[in-house]
Please model this.
Amino acid sequence: MSWSTLLNDVTYRDRPNNNAPNTTSPSNTITTADARSQISRARSYASTAATSVSISGDISSQLHGGYSHPLARAWQAERQLTKAMLMWPLFVTDNPDEEEIIPSLPGQKRVGLNKLVALLQPHIARGLKSVILFGVPLAPGCKDALGTAADDPQGPVISAIRLLRRAYPRLFIAADVCLCEYTSHGHCGILHEDGSLNNALSVDRISDVAMAYAEAGAHCVAPSDMNDGRIRAIKLKLIEAGIAHRVNLMSYAAKFSGCLYGPFRDAAGSAPSFGDRRCYQLPPGGRGLARRAITRDIAEGADIILVKPATQFLDIISDAKEIARDMPIAAYHVSGEYAMIHAAAKAGVFDLKTMAFEATEGILRAGANIVISYFTPNFLEWLET
Ligand SMILES: [Zn+2]
Model:
C-alpha cells in the first residue's frame, strides 16, 4: 500500500458516516465514477482495518516485512559469517608423534609434526582458509630465561610453517609470536632481576622471533606479548630484510588480562610460574588504554588490529573498527569463551550450535571481520548447510 493510499484510507475511515451516499454528486445521482470510487473505498477500508492495530500514525513502525524471509534476515547483518573470516588456532608440539586431546578445550588437540597434515586434511577439504600456530615445547629442559626455543629452526613452529606451506600451498599461515611458552618463568618477555619485564630486551628478542617465523614462510606474524614498541621493531626488521611486502603484521593491540585464558594455558603449558600478566596485558576496564594501544599500533605499522578476548569486549572491537576503520579487525574468541559455551550446552542451558553462531555474529556485528575461533572446524561444517 502506498503512503498516499494509506492517507486516503485513514481520512476515509475517520469521516463521519462513511457509508453515506456521496452528497457532493449533483442531484444525488450515482454515476459510474461514483460506483468505482465506492468499490475502491470498500477495498481500502478492508485493508486499513487489517493494519490499523499496529499503525499509530507513523509508517516506520512496520518492520516485520523486512525480515520475514530467512534470506531477508541474513541481509540485516552488515557482515555475514563466511569461511574466509575464520582462523583456527593450532597447538603444535615438539614431540612429532603426539596427538593429545586437550581436556579443557573440547574437541581440540595438541599435535606433533607427523600428525599435523592429516589433522588439517578434512578441514581443508571443507574450506579451511587459515590457521594460527602456537608452539608447545614439551622436551625436558627446553625452557630458559630467554625463551631460546622460540626460534629454534628445528622447533615446532618453524617446522610446522615449512611443512604446511609445502602440504597446503593455499593455506594462510599465521604464527603467534611470544616467549611465554618457551620461558622457564612463563612470562611474555625477558625479565629484570626484580621480576618485572625488561621491555627493551624483550622487544629485541621478540622481533627476532617474528623474523624467524616470517623467514620460514609465515604469511602473518602476530605478536601477543604486549611489550611496548614491538610492532615498530618487527616492521622495521621486516623492511630491512626486504620481506615487509609479503608478511602481514597482526597486532594483539588490545589484549586484556583476565580469567578466560585458563584452558589455553593448559594447552600451551604457558602459565606464569609466579605473579601474573597484569602489568603488560590491559586491565579489563581499560577502554581508553585499549584505544591508545590501537592508535599506537596503527602508527607503528600493524596491518591487522586484534582484540582479545572477544565477547566480553565487544565495545573494544567496535572502538577498533572506528579507530582503524581502513584496516581489518580481528577478534580472538578465546579458550575460556569456547569452553564456557561447551560447558553450558552440556548442562542443557542452550544449544551449542545456536550459541556458537550467536556469539560469533555478535563479534562480527561489533566490527570484526576476522575471527580466531576454536569453533572453526564446526563452522566449516555448519556453513555448508
Ligand atoms: Zn605470552
